[in-house]
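User: Before I run my own analysis I want an independent prediction to cross-check against. Here's the chain; please return only the structure tokens and, at the end, one sentence I can use as a sanity check.
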Amino acid sequence: MKKFFSRLWKEQIAQDLVEYALLLLLIALAAITSIRTLSSGIRNSYSTTSSDIRAGGNGGGNNGQDNGRNNGQDNGRNNGQDNGRNNGRN
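Assistant: Structure tokens:
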């Protein structure tokens, strides 16, 4: 095995093969590193979403339902109507 690598090192033709192998190794290491980083980010995102869903239950948004706010309906305030006070009338 040692003779094989020494022969590859000395031959001109084999230098291209070694360069391509090193380049392939570098690309593989970069791909593995980026995949690990990306997978941990995706895992964190899914776990955060999962915990938010579990904690939220039916919550989240209004979903078009009346949540007790005014929503444009009369909430007992004057709203410009006669409330039994004088309002400048005699």
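Sanity check: Helices lie at 2-10, 12-56.
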